[in-house]
## 1
Amino acid sequence: MSLLEVKDLQVRVEEREILHGLSLTVNPGQVHAIMGPNGSGKSTLSHVIAGKPGYEVTGGQILFKGEDLLEMAPNERAAKGVFLAFQYPVEIPGVTTWNFLHAALNAQRKARGEDEISSPAFLKKVREVAKSLNIPQDMLKRGVNVGFSGGEKKRNEILQMALFEPAVCILDEMDSGLDIDALRIAADGVNALRSPERAMVVITHYQRLLNYIVPDVVHVMSKGRVVKSGGKELALELEESGYAQFEDAA
Amino acid sequence: MNVVAKTETGRALGDAFAVVRDRLPGKGKIADQRQQAFEAYERSGLPHRRIEDWKYTDLRALMREVLPLAPAPDAAALDRATAAIKLRAIDGVRRLVLVDGAFAADLSDLGSLEKGLSVRPLREVLDAGDAALSAQAFASDISNPMIALNGAMATDGVVIDIADGTVLTRPLHIVHVASGTAPVAMFTRSLLRLGRDTGVTLVESYLAGEGAKAYQTHDGLIVAIGDNARLDHVRLVEDSVDAFNISSATVTLGAHAHFNTFGLTSGGHVSRYQLTVTCAGEGSKVETNGVNLINGKQHADTTLFLDHAVPHCASREIFRAVVDDRAHSVFQGRIIVRPDAQKTDAKMMTRALLLSDDAEADNKPELEIFADDVTCGHGATTGALDESLLFYMRARGLPEKEAQALLIQAFVGEAIETIVSDALRDVAIATAQRWLEARA
């Protein structure tokens, strides 16, 4: 069974249709890249998969392991194994990263009927993951993302991805705002999480990111639809010819 | 006398005062002062919205009447009070208990008082005719009708004296308990005098015994902080959700004195806390912080009046209100900087978080500055929880209420963190936690 199946998805925001029948099938172990120009609906797709309020689904469906994802609250989706790495991770003053991650992990475990993880066990786990991502300990004691640089915020997203061990990771414009070194660290973190059971959907404007996270499948989105799919060479082709050719096709 | 403003209940109260007058402690001059205070109250009656200070808290509409005086607690009442105290016991404090407006020696920790500490019930002090203390007890400004009423009717309280040079490590904890189911009123007034070079922590709690509902607590606290002395004060209002709590505190600071106070109101149907602080000695420092956590139809009003009377004093206020359902939070903060009070450093920040469309928060900061070389500032904000933060947290697996709870804790945390004692900060955090769990 496919892990994530988006079928003929139609989405509106305030009377304006953004997605006009988008379909996408993601199987375990695969990395899919979704490319497309500004306004093609890439971020809308990621938000609707994660359950962000404010979007009206007027048609189609999203199945996760065969279950109707659209019927679930955002936190239920997270507990089932859907993870969205935000393009712009928010800052939460007064809530320490450490506290937030512990509460979130336990909420997910509780929702799945698993035992809560104790503070010492959590501390050990989070330290290991943080170390592997080169995240200093004191960042965990600070408010979530408060005063973090762009690179630190993205690393914090990957830290969470590693901690929650989701089945599907959606990475929304992970490369935005990162210099080349920060991008490499983030990409290494993502690559370390690739596994035969896990799938990733990498949303990006630029081919550059895909040099570091090499996709199995590349989709081109334009005007709310997938207009072309192919192998990783499609990304290189786009880099040369641009998106203009697809604007007309859409 | 303004006959128009006088309500039926006002007359009933007048009769009641005549009845109870002889039961109130203190004779002679004190009885005269009570009479004057009562007359001052009677001239205005319960304050209402046309009086600027009471604009948001119209007691004529909210409270309507002053209830009859509570009877002295019997054995059953003391048992119910004991049970209520046990539920909210704080470790390591010296507990001083007032049940239904009467000092309960048997429930209080009066053994082995530290050297330099004196604790006496107000009733005893007044009956003994201690002129100096009695004068202090009735020195309050009777132009505020509720302070006047409190003075006229006060049945008991605690009189605490800290001798010069005494630093107490064990906090004092005044616990007010309403024991019974009858709708009655309690009137208490306490005095705290800190001598020079002293230090003490005072906790005040307001609790309800099981079954206690629509009672009224009318409390007054008069504090004098001597030169170079420090008072840390934590006040927790956990009255029953049908109760009324009208309290006033008047605090005067000597030179280089320090007053740090934190109040948390989560209980009571209608509460009003009037805090008047006067920096009377140069170099004194005041931190007044507070949190309201209210829901249902609760109404909680904190009205602060901070008087910078002399130069080189500093004051800080951090106030946070979290308002759910149809509740109504009021914060009035008035800072006055007198002409001589140069080099005053005063800052006030008040923020309200509305959790429902019907919730209301009124923030009224007022600065009156008559000196020209000062640093003063204030800010007030009101808003809802940030949806983008909530979505982020939910996308990480936190159910909505849990995500809200974390954000609310962070919101009130900045005020709670001002409590110096780790143990008392934990008590305040636990109180906030209980409120959050109850709404989950």
## 2
Amino acid sequence: MNTRQQLSANGPRDPVPGLAVFPLAGRQGVRAAGEVGLTTRAIWEGVLEQAVREDEDVYYLELSGVTFVDVAGAGALAAAAGQLSDGRRFVVNRPPPALRRTLDLLWPGQRGIEVSAS
Amino acid sequence: MTTAVTEPFGPLDPFVHPAFFYRDEQDYLDGTLPFVREGLEAGEPVAVAVPGKNLVLIRDALGDDAAAVRLLDMREAGRNPGRIIPGVLRAFADAQPAGRRVRIIGEPVWAGRSDAEYPACAQHEALINAAFRGRTATILCPYDVARLPEHVVADAYATHPTVIHPGSRAARDSDAYAPEDVVTRYNVPLPPVQEALTFAFDSDSLPHARHVAVGEGARLGLVGVKLDDLALATAELTTNSVVHGGGSGVLRVWAENGYVVCEVRDDGHLGDVLAGRRPVPRDQRGGRGVLLVNLIADLVRLHRSDSGTTVRCWFAR
């Protein structure tokens, strides 16, 4: 096979993108930056487990700095939303397109998730 | 063949899955309209998922009754044959009250399906039997015998336990019914590719694999949702390789006939013939990666061999 370009996982590369999480000021929730995938899944799930244990009606996930969420990451959010007590919800601000797409296709109308573009 | 591959094809009852052969529009309406009307009269949920031109025929002939039928253009909803079971057939059937028979007309094969698509169509037709066995449903599959090649009609005898001939409404047993053979026969190595961007990945380079695919997809002309979908598919397939497929794999991306194609190959063995075709219960964690790929790609082809698994997916530019 001719390859136009042969890249290797063993060659020089940029640092692996991580996931950084910061508490929000003035409201309950976090701002996250980076990517949600296999390598950062534990961080993301930790955030969601903590969120389920909180007591405010709304838990904000500010995701404008998140560039990608994989299906397992979307599934963790859907599962956490399903565990929220009645009347509680996640407000997901400015999620990456992949998260919207996955939620629409695999968890349409999931209780406890409100997606916000602002 | 392993037990895991053959086991899903047991007795179908009460599931009914006839192929319906037609030669022209009159045959088509004579075979499909009574099927729909009998369902409506019995209070059964009815869906029709056929190519747009045939959908218009049925819709117009039904008149006001069309409002009670779920109508889908199979050229859109079923462009990827791997999407049809989870995204069309089971999506409709599973949403109906339990115990009531569900009627669906599903036409996944039409003249003009490409050589790349057809093996996935034949496997899909065979796998309907595994996905619906034991369920109270009837799926009638029209075949345009005037325009489809002979081998396609021969395959319909192998993927359907019964067959209805033009001018007849009676289903006759197919002597050639052998769905597991069809799944195996079309499990063929995917056509070689002359030139492709190639990236070997492992757990440390998973995010890079996705970035490489997205960069190449954009360079080859994918934009917007299609580019997002390429990112999702690449992430799910490469993650599967790392978690279930031996810890590493090879990603390739290239352009082909108006599509960007992404392929992931690894050393894993995918035993489940219905992988990515079952709807997943809402409360189940995990197991949705290949399902999502089937829902978003324009075509998915899979090759399972002793040395590993290759998944190839097409995204229209």
## 3
Amino acid sequence: MKRVLGDNWVLPALDDDNRAFFTSGKLVVQQCSQCEKFQHAPEDICQSCQSFELHNFESQGQGKVESVAVVDHAIHPSLKDKVPYAIVAVSVDDAPGVLIVGNVIGKAPDDIRIGDNVSVVFEEVDDERSGERLTIPQWQAVQ
Amino acid sequence: MNDKAAICGIGETVYYNRGDSPHTEFQLACMAITAAADDAGIAPDEIDGFVTYSDNRNGPTRLSAALGIQNLRFAATTWPGGGNSVAGAMQIAESAVRAGYANNIVVFRAIAQGQFGRFGQAGGSSGMGGGYMAGGAAFSGPYGLLSPAQRCALRTARFMHDHDISQEALCDIAMACYANAQSNPRALKSGKPLTREQYHASRWIVKPYHLYDCCPENDGAAASIITTAERARDRKNKPAYITGAAQGDGASYSTLTPDDLATSFYTPVAENLWGYTGLEPKDMDVVQFYENFTGAVLIALSEMGFAPPEGIEEFVSGGALVGPEAKLPFNTSGGNLAEAYIHGFQLINESVRQIRGTSTCQVRNVEHALTVGGPGYAPGSAIVLGASQ
């Protein structure tokens, strides 16, 4: 899908911590190999047991809106024709304990409610700097 | 170890709307510091320490040269962050004075956004360099989550949802600040009272925040001088003793998690502050809460222990925060919203005035004055000043 905030909007700068999240075409959440707890954003150490043994868990991509803030005031010129847009914090059904930030498609911003079910979809865009094809997780409203 | 430290001098510049300062930021810093020295009854070159916060640009060596200080003995800043650390900076100065490392430590904040660009502008000085966002911002910027207002709005929206809090509670915070500013000639919103109708008619910035829920951006500087209680007693103004200060952070606060979504990060600050001082919220005669956003203040008021979340709307309603006779005298100079947004340092000076009895919205018989730093960012910080040692 095209990007929610426009194909010219800022991209994530890829690094070793976020490459899987933004290029794998799956919803990826960091998981501790020792205690199996999830954490996001990725960190160098498990915040639950302090293990360095961490891996990427591939989620099925179902989640729930835990909070929503509807942006009416564009704070960057290139967002002026994108407002209002909704920012959501989504909990992931099969990776408890984390929240993923995103936007929601398939529902008007002011109609999005805490508790709404959502499923992951992906913005696809070529990243000229890294030469990689990005798959940026977003959320589709589930009726 | 000295028994106690005290604030013996306060100073500030004229406060300006953003970009309107005729002075450079460094000049503003020097003006506030020399005014505080004068208020303390010392010469500027008797200052022997500087402490600040919020990525301050005005360094200690430049200041000591400018002020003719021959023996700068202490300089420190809090870790990077913003107004969450305002009372943390006071705690550092208090610790150093009590340890005897310096005798007259200035804590200050200065900002001139005409000179340096907007502090609060997303992607401004912090950069959306070349259309990319890196590190933690890579997980938020591409989704248009850029500003402190947007981050705090996510937390406030969940807090309002969980505890059935209406927009009127946010309005009550804003209206109290504006009302209390009307008697304060320093306040930028003096002469501009806010009605409930104006509040609701104002545009949305990011729901649930209207324009009046968000602090303005201002230019100016404010400073306090910390010394030992013993020295403070010999100075020209009544000492404001530092009863105790605290910082606080929780293990899960560095990331957005479901359990801590609706927080202002002040639960650990409250535990540390009330534990250290042996005091409770009901012992506070007057409070100053850093309002970056009204909704974040509601959460902080609750987390600091003034009312449970489910009772916070009733607690702030009906003018409960307005005026010197209020149920809880609150942001008596107008706060960040209506006096000026000097990253909360003007709140420290207002607490000192309340202890001295010189506020323009003076509460009677103030024994303890609380100042709470910026909510929604960790580590938070808070400080209690006392009229007696």
## 4
Amino acid sequence: MVETIETSMVNLGSVSRIPLGQGRCYVVGAEEIAVFRQRDGRLFATQNRCPHRQGPLSEGVMGAGQLICPLHSHKFDLQDGAGAEHGECLMVYGVEERKGEILLRMNSGRKAC
Amino acid sequence: MTRLVVVGNGMAGARVVEEILKRAPGRFEITMFGAEIYGNYNRILLSNVLNGSQAAADIFMNPLAWYEEHGITLHAGVRATRIDRERRVVIGAPLRKDALAYAADAAAEGGAALIEAPYDHVIIATGARPFVPPIDGFDGPGAFLFRTIDDCDRIADYAKGRRRAAVVGGGLLGLEAARGLLTHEVEVTVLEAAPQLMMAQLDTESGDMLRATISGMGMKVLTNTITTRIIRSGDQVTRLDFADGTSLDTDMVVVSAGIRPITEIATASGLTVNKGIVCNDQMQTSDPDIFALGECVEHRGATYGLVEPIWGMANVLADVITGTNANAAYLGSKLGTKLKVMGVELASMGETRSADEGDEVVVYREPRLGIYKKLIVRNDRIAGAILLGETEAASTLMQMFMAGSAVPDRRADLFFGSPTGVALLKASDLPDNAQICNCNGISKRQIVEAIETKGCKSVTKVGACTKAGLGCGSCKGLVAQLLEAYLGEVGYDPTEHYYVPGVPLEKSQLVAEIRSRGLKSVSAVFQELAGGVEDPGSKVGLASLLKTLWPGEYDDERDARFINDRVHANIQKDGTFSVVPRIYAGVTTADELMRIAQVAVKYSVPMVKFTGGQRIDLLGIKKDDLPGVWKDLGMPSGHAYTKSFRTCKSCVGTDFCRYGVGDSIGMAQQIERRFQGIESPHKMKLATAGCPRNCSEALVKDIGAVAIEGGRWEIYVGGAAGGTIRKGDLLCTVATQDEVLATVGRFIQYYREHGRYLERTYHFLERIGVDNLRKILVEDSLGICAQLDASIQKAVDAYRDPWQEAQRPAYHAQFNEAELAYTLEVAENNG
């Protein structure tokens, strides 16, 4: 069986490289992407820098599809990137796990604001 | 589209355009004339540009791109000279590059074509120019005005290598200019024609006090001094001559003696001009199609030189011109300013001198400290006030002055607060636009809206909706007052009492459930007590509690921890970390210092700084360097990144000090070795003092032990000297060092068990009450002391230095930086 993967997909390697319930930052081309591995196994991917003061979001506390920036606790929805603060939102990317590896779809970036 | 021509591109011109765009985007075709070649900038900050604390680029309010974005045609460097009201065009002449933008005779570029802009409406916002008193020789090198960015550049350039500068004008602007000049390392003398400094804001007495204070800082001030002549030798300024026959040697002179409205275009166009361009309450000039605002305007006989009136005029003008409210009226502005002059706090509002027989004048003075407070009360309202040297009361006074609120019967309360602690300010009496939360800039209107339309019934809910009260929190009382006024009561919100928002239990209930079910990880708590739903906002608080409840047994899921506790270092604004090794009681050795120095060199540490807790902070460490740094330091973690026991400062005690009565160093070392790293609801900073002189500030620490004569120790708890200042309460006096350790441990354990998450000891103490606490911890009224002692001992025994993780990381990629992804690897996968 032949499985094809779109050329814009990036393999970020084994999912086990992200500690359970945490995030990790990957540099893809010129972009810093934060990928999160929720305790239930769901993956999320967003821009790594907080729109507020450029805090490293991959170091934030996450859970239930929400993320808290480590610098000033601004909150974001990991699903659609919407921020709790007025006018703040994140670029979110499609990401999935296939055969234990993380596949990130770089051309799928979208923003809620 | 309606054609709108705005003459003037300063703060007033730009602000009114912003207001118009807000109300009627796309309705106007806007053309702006600006004599300066820049986009508009915040003139208030000019002295910062002069003293170098801000770059010119930082004070621009609307960069040139803003004009493009809004389709505004900007004629920068072009001065509008006349409005042809027959042909309905504004005529502008390009200025020569070197022309002084605000000069009445600024030279037009020779041969350049005039620019004509047709209009339906004109807004004149030409502002003001510096007033130059008649001084012989002002037109020549070495003499400057202080009004524009170009002026700042010229002054700063000229000051290089000169020794002495004189500033003509002892008003607000003059002193600002003088402050700016001081940073250029010239001796500055301020020359004021009036008998005192800052005539407009101060009365005679406070003017004299300010003069004394700034003279003490090395700036000379001459009052009653009228400058008549500038003397030069060649093209160098050498001396100023004064009207009274005396003189002053100087190398340069800056004139900043007030401003005058710029009105030439109005005069040339046949509009009514008095001191300024005369406007009605709708900001119309004598031609109803031509409006004006800002410093060029005379309204009801008054001209203004501050920004607040500009904002008020801009609102009214925008309402009128867009038809949003054709009857909007500007009724004049009450003026108040709060500022720092040469580092001296000053607030002034309304009148400075009593004008009416019936005025009550209340004055408090403390000359040694440079403090002066004056209040002019007329008909129970504030007619004017001056606060010099101490301005805490300014915001309350300003609110009351602006709103015209009645003042309390005991006038002194306005200066010193009410002795009963009753709030002076009734939130319900404040105007809608009064700012309640000064940290986040939230007005009363926004809070009332949240209460009435968004169903916010508690202080917490109002905070969640509006951000009011989420800064320093000092406005929460006012928010509660508003809730009471609009709802009749402050709502009881049970979630306020939950230990964390995601688990619906108060702390005592939560602790009981965790113990009885044996829950040792955060995920287990969510599973058992929150229906399996994770809440990221609750994870960190639960982790802290679990570590407290299960010393040595807690299942440390690092995803539940704040980044600081994942990597045992404090995250900085740029994503690097700070590392503070433990230095017990602030006593270190040459060997440790050498290792710290070697680490600083090896890892190119950008900053090495002493902390307030008698330790050394290495700032700017990269995450993947942390294990290496810890290994090379060979010192344990100082826990300067977490909610736990932090440090115990000490003074030199009995070892060397000739006053010491107790061994504060030995005591502090014992305390720090015993309680290092113990988790708690919030951080704990401790100190010991070898005598009641309290050099180590033990009275303002979470816990402080102070040695007193007779070998005994006083133990203070709940002190603070950060955002909150509070002297600790004396819990008890004990006879031995062992008893100090026991009492400190008992207090820490009780706080660990009963403190709310992120509740500092000083709030905890006020909630429980020191008398109550003494009964529980000293007299053992609840019979729990043995249990507290045993629990804290268990926590002490379970302590491990987290920096040992340098040898063996707690989890994969714990200290890894961002990872490079290789896109080429995955073009196709033929599995």
